[in-house]
Each structure stands twice: as structure tokens, then as C-alpha cells.
Amino acid sequence: MEYESVIGLEIHVELNCATKMFCDCPNRPGDEPNQNTCPICLWFPGAIPKFSREALEKASMVCLGLNCQIQERSAFDQKVYYYPDLPKGFQLSQAHRPLARNGWLDITGQDGKTKKLRIHHIHMEEDVAKLVHETEGRTPISLVDFNRAGAPLVEIVTEPDMRSPYDAMEFIRALRTQIRYVGSSDCSMESGTMRVDANISIRPKGTDQMNTKVEVKNMNSIRHLGDAITYEIQRQIACLQGGEPIVLHTRLWDPEKKVTTAMRGKFSGPCVPDPAVAQILVSQAWLNEMQARLPEMPAQKADRFIRQFGLTREEAVMMSAERDLSEYVEAVINHGIKPKTATHWLATQFLPALRERRQTIVDTTVKPDRFAGLLSMLERDEINANAAREVLNQLFERDDSPAELVEKAGVRQISDASALEGLIEKVLVANVSAVADFRNGVSKAMGFLIGQAMQASGGKANPKLIREILTKKLGA
Amino acid sequence: MPSDIFSYREPSPSSRGKDGALSGMKMALQPNMSVRGWPTEAGSMALRRFVALENATVVERLKEAGAILVGSTRMSELGFGLAGDLTASAVSEGHADCALITDTMGESLVAASIAGLWALKPTYGIISRLGLIGLVPSMECYGAVAMKPQDIAPVMKVIAGRDENDFSMPDLAIPDFRLDGKKGNTIKTIAVLKECLDLLSDDEAALFRSGLSRLEQAGFSLQEESMEEFGLFRTVHQVVGSVEASSSAGKYDGVRYGHRASAAKNWNEMYLKSRAESFGMPVKAYLFQGAYFQFENFDAFEDACRIRARLVKAMDDLFTRVDAIAIPTRRKKHPAEKALSVTQVYDAFLLTLAASVTGLPALQVPGVMSDGDFDSGLQLVGRRLSDPHLLSAGARLRR
Lengths: 476, 399
Prior knowledge:
The structure holds 2 protein chains of 2 kinds. Chain A has helices at residues 53-65, 165-182, 222-241, 284-293, 298-309, 313-320, 323-334, 339-356, 368-379, 385-397, 402-409, 417-430, 432-439, 444-456, 463-474, and strands at residues 3-14, 69-70, 73-80, 90-97, 100-108, 114-126, 130-134, 141-145, 152-158, 194-204, 214-219, 249-254, 259-262, 271-273, 280-281. By secondary structure, chain A is of the alpha+beta class. Chain A has 3 domains: 3-285, no CATH class; 296-409, no CATH class; 417-474, Arc Repressor Mutant, subunit A. Chain B has an 11-stranded mixed sheet with strand order 1-3-2-4-6-5-10-11-9-7-8, sandwiched between helices. Chain B has a single domain (2-238, 299-398), classed as Amidase signature (AS) domain (Amidase signature (AS) enzymes, Alpha-Beta Complex).
């Protein structure tokens, strides 16, 4: 029998707010343990949560970026369960009245067609503390770090619309792009600011039944997400074929062994409305304000790049996938660089150079004006491509302007025909056999002669001009 | 003996506080009201050795107004009921001019009635709860107990008001507690509820009726009214209260403070044993009840929440026809100080639950419903935010 998989995702995204969700402590989980704490996020008796406006704003931007409808009224509940990383006995979460419902994202399916994947709802919740288990030493101990306790999260719950690991991976890529665009999180599975759990079930292909699902956790990259889903689908098919029923449970992905293994039964407690946390009433005016903050999103931006700059769809999609990159390329173009040049040089030279140096577009010293300065010299034939690559490397190391670096390196291109004439004469004299070859119809001799001329100029000659002069002199 | 009344006494209370509205006024608190550096054990082993890190907003305001905080009194476990609570004695025995009592189901009113004192349970939400350690966040508030209403009004004036750190406070216009006699003469018609009379034994009813004549003599007009839902306050309070208690007491695990059981095999057992050893009766039974509704019968909890909303509306409707409701404060055959089971506690507080469930203000007036041997206390429940009007009506009654 042929099976198809039914996949839904639950995605936790840590919002990049300055403070935690219910107190003024810095939202920096990575600091020295228990530095960023107060009676509220230590969950001490008598404390009352103070809901952060910034958390609501950043969460709302996520909802808008994922095409969700923000609800007029939402509220926090006490999600009751006990674990040492949650010593107040409940997590504040929006179980009954989520912030937003009914969203969607488009992906391009494996068949190349656009596929709309729906989002059931998005709710806000606080993160729990972090447990550190010290197993070395005589007595194993468990330590609790409250820096993360109360950190602001949104949880995005999709409809079970995905049918393959590919769909799930594409959805997460699209979601990451949207959330990075609205500026609410960097959504890094590797560093834990985005955690994706997958609910997977299988059914005979062509039916629409919903079978028992299995939840898979602990994937820390998009690739692992795909691998884990692939493995789980195979495991479930093997179960069914072996006559074993699928039971509802949670499994952990083991990235080393590339298998999923069953984990402890998850306790799911009740959710009691919290009278100490005010309900959230969203006014139209506030919603308008949030909508006005929404930047041009990647799909629209790609369309505009095609329209306005004449980029191909592929170039436009690539240049608009990340907001920082899209703003960078646009800034470079606004400095007068041809869109094609800007796009090409960003993709083939600038981005690899950044990666090599482990820099980001935001923190690099090669700001758009400096990069544009370099490219404009290239476009005006003041330097050639080799020189441009060399100077680009120096731009990363030094604060000088591109023009200063070009002067210092002495790579300004010689585009003065009279200056090149003499040089080429010498090359012709020194390479009589190549000249003879060329005249006898060996066309690649021309390339050799150009190379000799370039070398003689110390790489500074304008190769186009050399070819012109050579062609003229050899009477070809 | 003061040492019996207080669980903690401020070693060197200034003879006179700062200059302010409450300069020189001696206040007793309960050890679940956070005062920085004071032991704050809330009458429970679950908070043993817990010391407040910050002042409650109320404490901050009392200090700022010049009140002298003399200490914290022995209290019932987490302020649930009055078993073992000696807070009102701090006032009746002259150690304090005013005491604050955590009021979840009428504790301040009943405690004052037992001690022959006045008490105001204010409108829910006009006083910041920041730093108050209780069990039932949607009902608990600071009740004030004193020898005379004139000592309650200035305290309320100081502690009531918006607190930017308590987001749970509703957006209410805080009433003006400086009412003088004339301006405060707004309470004229007082309801007597048929269904309330039905709950009383013959003795209780007779005492209540005799006291009502005092109301008429003082110029109030009485009006017989009916409120079919009156019998539901007990069930609603118990279901909602126990669920909130179970949820909010979930944090007492004996790890960072509080009693921690020894000799447990693993952490789970350590939590279970610590909690089993920490809570006493009736709180432990109450937490079990709440857990039952949370885990086994959540629908009943949701029903109770809906009925609660209906009760609020029924009371609001009643207040379109009358200015206050008269109810006895306590019952002779059901002493609150001896109530050790959940049923006994609810029997003892049966008559004060309406104000807690609906968040309405209630005033306890001593010396009106008395046969010389037993004073049940007169409870006046008023409109939301009518707190100062209740105080002046009470003063008129005793003039």
C-alpha cells in the first residue's frame, strides 16, 4: 500500500525583546546564571506579573507577518504542571484565548506549484527556567538557572497541511523569513531561539482520514527537522506493516544516531484563567499602528525588485529573502550602481567574503556606501574585476575609502590607449611566435597575448582596451 | 500576652513615623503581607523561613504616610478561614489602632465581629495586591479592622489607589474616603433578603430582626427583597476559590524556602513529601478539592465562573432598587475560630461570601445585632466603590 504523511508543526519562537515577558529583567538567557532575575521571574510569593508592551508588539508583528487575524480579546491562563524548571507550578500561556488565529504561508511545493499552508493560531507564553544537571562528582545535582524564566515566546500551531518533510522544511524557511522580516526574532534552530516540534501521522494515499499522531522533538536545524520526519514516517510505515498499532506519544530525535526514541509520557494539566494578569483588549487604532509598522514583506519586495530593477525572479527572490540583505542591496543600487552589478557582486563576492569572516550584514564595516564606492569604480572602468576583488578584501580589514585603497594598492586601471600602445608593442616584439600563430589562424594565441599584456601592466590594464589595440595592430 | 498575638514584632518601632496622614498610628499586619526583611511565612510551613525581598505596595504606602508597623500577628494558614488567627486581638487588646486582615471569604468581617470591632472589606481591585501572599487571587483583599470607623477611613485613603506595578487592578475610579457626615448620607434604603433569612436558624433570625429595628430607628428605610441566587454564593465560592488555591499554591515545593522533607528517594518524592508535611487542615483539603475540579471536573469550574458572572449581575440589579443589603456577619452555632474542615469553614463564613464572590464592599458594625450575650455583627454590603458611604452609614447607625 502506498502511504502519505500528514504533518503539523508547533513552533516556539523566542522574541528578541529587551526585557522578559512579565518583568523588567533583561531578556538575556545566556548571561551568568541567575543574573537576570527578580521576585517576579523567580516566581516568589506575592509577586504580580507585569505584562510587557514590547512583548505584545513583537508577538503581534509575528502574527501579522504570518497573515493571522489578531483577536480583539485574548487572555493568559495558568497552564498547570510541575517540573523543577517551573517551580511556580504553572506556566502563563494563552490556552483558551490566543492572540491570533487563522494565518497562512505560501511555499513552492516539490511540483513547483504554490501551496498554501494554514496556521491554526498563535499564542504567547513565558519560557521556563533552564536545568543544568551536574552528573560528575560524588552526588549528582541539578541546578536551576532562572535567566530564561519568563522570557517572551510565541507558539505557532499549524494545521496538518504538510504532506512531506520537504513541505515542513519549506514552511519553516518561509516562516523564518517572515519573522526575521518583521524583526521579532532571528529564529535560529541552532541557537534555540526557534524550536520546532512535528506531529506526524500516516494514512493510505488518497484517503482523508486522520490517524494517531506521534510528536517528535529535539531537532536543532532545519535539516534535522527533515531527517527526523523522514525517519518517523518510515518508522510508522514499518510499524503498520508489522501489524503494530501507532500509539499517541512523544519521541526525541537523536541527531547522532539519526533515529527517534520514545520519551517520558507528557503530562498535560488543566488551564485555569489567571485573575492576576489583565486580559488584552486590542483596539483598532492600536492594530492600525502595528500594521503601519509592518515592513514591505519579501514576496512584495521580490515583485518590486523585478519591476523596478529588472532582476530575474531568481535574483529577486534571493535578494529579498533576508531583510538586511534586501535593504543592503537596495542601498547599493541607490548609490547609482546597476542592479545587475550589485546583485551579482553581492551574491558571488560580498556574501562569501562575509561568511568567511563570520560577519553579518548588520555588523560588518563594509557598509553599502563603501561597497557601492568600489562597484562604481568598477563600472567606470577605473579598476578591473580582479582589482575589485582584491580591494573588497581590503575593505574588510581597513577603514580607508575604496578610492584610497585603490590608490594605495596601485591597481587603478590603465584605460589610456596611448599608455597601453607602447606596452603592447613590447609584448608583440617579445612574443613573435605567438603573433605568427595568430596570423596562421590559431585564435587562442590572442588570449595568450592579452595575458602577457596584462602581466606587463601589473594587472592594471583594461583588458577590453588591450584586446581592441591588439586586434587593430594584428590587423585581425 | 502580646507574644501570643504576634508572630513577629518590630524590635524598634519608631515612636512616631514620618509626618503624614497616618503619623503615629499603630498598625498590625499579617505575616503574608510583605515587609522587606520581615519573616513572611503566611502561617504556613510551606513558607517557613521565607523573608520578603520587597515591600508590598500597601506597606510602602503605610510607611510613607507615617504609620507605625508594630509587627505581624499569628494568622490562619495562608489566610484561609480564621483558625489560629489572632489579628483582631492586636486591636482589641490595644497593641494597634488598626489591623489589616487578608479577606478571602469575609475573614476581616467575621474576625472583627468576634472581637466586637469594626471592619471594612473594600471593593475588590481598589487596593494593590502586590506583595500579598494569598490563595485566591480573584477574591483576596486587605480588610481593615479597628475600634471605630474613623480609624478605618484614613487607612483606606492611604492604601487604596492605582499601582502601576499591579496590572491586575481594574480601571476603577478610587472612592474618596474623606467623606464627612453630610456628603456621605447617600445610603438610605437597605434591603433584607428573603433568601438570606431562609438560611438562618430561628435564633439567628430573631436576633437579626431585633437588630433591624435599630436600622429603622436610625432613619434607614428597610425593604424586603428577593434574590433567588443567594444560595449559590457558597458553591461558587468553593469551586472557584479551591481551584485558584490549588493553582496558586502549586509553587510551594519546599526547595528555595519552606519546609523540605528529608529522606526522599528522588525529587518527585521530595516534592510530594514536602507538600504533604507542609500543609495543615483545612488548607490541604481545600487544595485537594481544587485539584479535583482542575483535573477531573473542569466543566464544573467553568460553570461556576459563569454563575459567578450572573451573581455579579444579580447584585448590580438589586442595587438599582436599594443602597445596601443588611446581613448578619456571623453565626452563633458555627464559630469561625474553631472551623477546621472545609465544610466547617464554609458554614462559618456562609453570610460573608456574597461580597467576596462579587467583589463588593462590606462593612461590619458591632453592637447592633446583639442580645447582650452574643453579637452576630451587622454586615452592610454596598454598591461597588461605595466603601466610604458604607462607613458613614455605619457611623450614623451607632451615633
